[in-house]
Amino acid sequence: MSTEKQTHGFQAEVSRLLHLMIHSLYSNREIFLRELVSNASDACDKLRFQSLDNPALIGEGAEPAITLTIDKEAGTLTVADNGIGMDESDVVDNLGTIARSGTEKFLAQLSGDQKKDAQLIGQFGVGFYSAFIVADKVTVETRKAGSDKASGVRWESDGQGEFTVEGIERLQPGTAVILHLRDDARDFLDPFKIRQVINQYSDHVAFPINLLTPAEGDAEESSETLNSATALWQRPRQEVSDEEYQSFYKHISHDFQDALSWSHNKVEGALEYTSLLYLPARAPFDLYHRDANRGLKLYVQRVFIMDDAEQFLPQYLRFVKGVIDAPDLPLNVSRELLQDYGPVQKIRAALTKRVLQMLKKLSNDEEQYKAFWSQFGQVLKEGIGEDADNREAIAALLRFASTHEEEGVTRLDAYLERKPAEQESIYYLLADTPSAALNSPHLEVFRKKGIEVLLLSDPVDEWMVSYLDSYKDVKLVNAARGELDLDEAAGEAESDNPLVARLKDSLAEQVESVRATRRLVDSPSCLVLAEDQLGPQMRRMLEAAGQPVPENKPVLEVNLDHDLLKALGTVDDGERFNDLAALLLDQAMLAEGQLPKDPAATARRMHQMLVSAVNN
Ligand SMILES: Nc1ncnc2c1ncn2[C@@H]1O[C@H](COP(=O)(O)OP(=O)(O)OP(=O)(O)O)[C@@H](O)[C@H]1O
């Protein structure tokens, strides 16, 4: 342990975050107290957990507690705990860096617009650094539980880019965060204000939060406990107010916004557990990062066991926050053990059903559900592939753009209600964007017949529908694949058409086949994939992942009733015919949002066409 004072620079991201945070969170200043109290409570949780194996860690009579001390003269507010504490390397790692992937990208999104940035930073979670919203200097004194009193550490910074670390003597293990309040934050020296903020944000913290006010004038030193200090999830539902649920949500999630909804249940019987699950209103910035926090906080008989207990919910529900308290699990349960532990599988299956029910209930309110869907819809779609047992329930929660829903979105059930009885399938079309889908030549015949087509343009959609063969026993059919049986007589009779045969010859290298179609009304041609071929979205996904992708040639379908095709039939010059045939294929690719195989050749052919059109 070095005793000399050492100066360190903050990681560049921390400096930027500090700067932005101080400016954009000014109007939410009091959140710093919630964040520091949350950290103190986590530290007490961790110590209690470690002391299961090593009871000596908790000193005699030292019940875990959080102490707030106001010192008006010094202008400081101190948030202290007798939790796990930190050693020197913990301090340098935890209070000087942000070890979350995607941080740089996240910071790049911040615009300087206070309101927008405040929201974004809320999604990110500011934790300890929020101390600098109210303090122009922060001192942390800490000692790791189990180490001796000479192993204390003092960390200090004005939040301007550097911090110092030095060894100190500290009598008690645990951490004290001393805030030297800015002049405009001196209202946090008022016990009344502290009481109000703790009441609002931290009443449910499961350890006592004591407020110490030193003697002043006639008043003697005093100490009072500000919170009820019972585990909120252990209280009966009807005794917990909505405000309490919301503030508990913010405590465990570090979100600034209210949750969309929650579900609190005590399950009795052979397998007892209590769960409190929340649906957040906004996606965290790192929802798609593999190492992002996810899952629930696990407690056993109110003793905190672990964060991110991902075994209790499937991946695709990783946005759900909450706690689970399973009193029958062994206290020394580890992640590895959880994985193969029978009761955990049962709890997971039940919690999954519960979340899907919450979503179903939420979807009764279209407005609210829209908000949810825009944030988490893409993640929920992963469930179609991942969770065969609940596939139908998840499918009912999906939302799609549709040819029959001009602005909004539709559900599979609404599609089925609108569908004429004789229509045997649910049709969908995959495209890169909603507008590409709407303009696709594949829709022409569906429009003409008034048949509804769902428009899928999320990158995950192709993968997802590959797992969704049917919904309520109605098959899902890709409108751009294979031969459509919309009009049985179509196509077949014309298969030996001489123009089709010439096109086949001319394009033999590029296409699998050419055939006449009734699929098209206004367009001359379009591409169709065989039933078993990969679509362009899947292709790109596989290519991006470095996987080998089989070459597949599309089928070109042509509309023999189209003027262009009629004219093409009269072209005798072989070279000119080949150029026109190639253009017919290229424009079909463009309509799909794909680039022609040889863009330069396409440009040359178009150039020739334009010149001859202008000269005519
Ligand atoms: N009072 C404390 N006692 C012990 N360790 C602490 C304390 N406060 C902070 N730390 C340590 O510093 C780390 C960083 O804290 P910070 O609040 O910035 O982020 P976090 O709590 O990990 O993340 P978030 O707040 O976004 O959940 C914590 O993970 C913890 O290891």
Automatic annotation (TrEMBL):
Residues reported to bind ATP: 35, 39, 81, 86, 94, 101-102, 123-128, 175, 335
UniProt entry keywords in alphabetical sequence: ATP-binding, Chaperone, Cytoplasm, Nucleotide-binding, Stress response
Keyword Chaperone: yes
Residue numbers spanned by region C: 541-616
PROSITE patterns documented for this protein: HSP90
Molecular functions per Gene Ontology: ATP binding; ATP hydrolysis activity; ATP-dependent protein folding chaperone; unfolded protein binding
A GO cellular component annotation in the UniProt record: cytoplasm
Compartments it resides in: Cytoplasm
Subunit-level organization: Homodimer.
Family statement: Belongs to the heat shock protein 90 family.
Record-given protein name: Chaperone protein HtpG
Gene encoding the protein: htpG
